[in-house]
């Protein structure tokens, strides 16, 4: 378990519809926050394949029970749980802790 030293309020949970995402700035880093069917996730917004900060605008879905986001550029799928790319071996994005407190989404800084 990763200890989180601080949390940044991002937005109200109702502002991110189910199966969609939004970008936020957390400690100077672009973070993509997602509301998938089974919970909330936060990944780096940076797509390492295209080199663009676009993952928050990707398509949120499911790949064999794994919640994923498909990049809007080349459609690589990234696990929302661990950031690993399902379509390119050895490619991944950082994952951030995320929680909802009093209806507000907060992203943690490890």
TrEMBL record:
CDD domains: Rieske_NirD
Top-rank lineage group of the source organism: Bacteria
Coiled-coil region list: none
Keyword match Iron-sulfur: yes
Annotated keywords: 2Fe-2S, Iron, Iron-sulfur, Metal-binding, Nitrate assimilation, Oxidoreductase
Stretches assigned to the Rieske domain: 8-107
Any Pfam family the entry gives: Rieske_2
NCBIfam families noted in UniProt: nirD_assim_sml
Database matches in PANTHER family: NITRITE REDUCTASE (NADH) SMALL SUBUNIT, PTHR40562
Name assigned to this protein: Nitrite reductase small subunit NirD
Organism, scientific name: Amycolatopsis silviterrae
């Amino acid at each position: 378990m990763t200890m989180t030293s601080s949390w940044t309020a991002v937005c109200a949970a109702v502002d991110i519809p189910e199966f969609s995402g939004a970008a936020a700035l957390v400690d100077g880093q672009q973070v993509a926050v997602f509301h998938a069917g089974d919970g909330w996730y936060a990944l780096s917004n940076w797509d390492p394949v295209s080199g663009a900060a676009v993952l928050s605008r990707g398509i949120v879905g499911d790949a064999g029970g794994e919640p994923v986001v498909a990049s809007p550029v080349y459609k690589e799928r990234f696990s929302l749980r661990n950031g690993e790319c399902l379509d390119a071996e050895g490619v991944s994005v950082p994952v951030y802790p995320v929680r909802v407190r009093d209806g507000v989404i907060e992203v943690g800084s490890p």
